[in-house]
User: What shape does this take?
Amino acid sequence: MKNRILFSALLFILVLLVGCQQNSSSQSSTPQPQAPAPPVSNNISGSVVETMNALGYTYVLVETDNQQVWAATPQFAVGVGDLVVIPEGMPMHNYHSQTLDRTFDVVYFVDSILNASSVNASSAAPAQGEMPTGHPPIAGMGGAAPAPIVVSPLDKLENGLNIEEIYAARNDLSGQEIQLRGKVVKFSPQIMGTNWVHLQDGSGSPAAGNHDLTLTSNNQLKVGDVVVARGKLTTDKDFGHGYVYDLIVENAVLSVE
Assistant: This one.
């Protein structure tokens, strides 16, 4: 009787072990989800698997050893199978091209792409761009400089500063909360997940480069709004991809007067 009980127990344990091994083997053979491809942070090269033109820009889908990357640049000659080199660029997530009627999960806008198969690169800026509204300027693509905006001097806030004073005291104000009154001269919505605002108040000068202050904010504004702005001043902010700001106020709170 005891032998029968012992035999049954051993048989039960054996069945459990075999079941665990089969389950482990099944799990190991199940395909695991692939991690998302890392963003473009350095020059990459690969073969073009798809390309199209839209309003002076060329879009290319480039395949490397481990990822596929969409990039856009001023129009240039390229074909499927060409080997190209893409420099660092500004990523635009969920970008919709109205001309192509197509939404890209991520597309990198760059100043040029080298076609190593024909030894040429994009260079000339298009007359009309497919660049997203408010996209930060790309080096070499600006064309003629826009006419400077003239803002009449605004009254300074009580216990506030004007933009010229902020530039002059930048070292002392770095990391401190500031407040000012300014006019919106440029508003760029939803770039890198936030809104970008340029304020001027009539102080400083374009020649000295101390007349315009950049802020990021969740507030919705329009050019011409006069606002009161509050936020922490940051100096020498580097967002990467060539976007460096001497002064910037991030996550500013803005109220329209």
In short: Confidence is low (pLDDT under 50) at residues 1-41, 119-130, 133-147. The helical segments are 2-29, 163-168, 170-173.
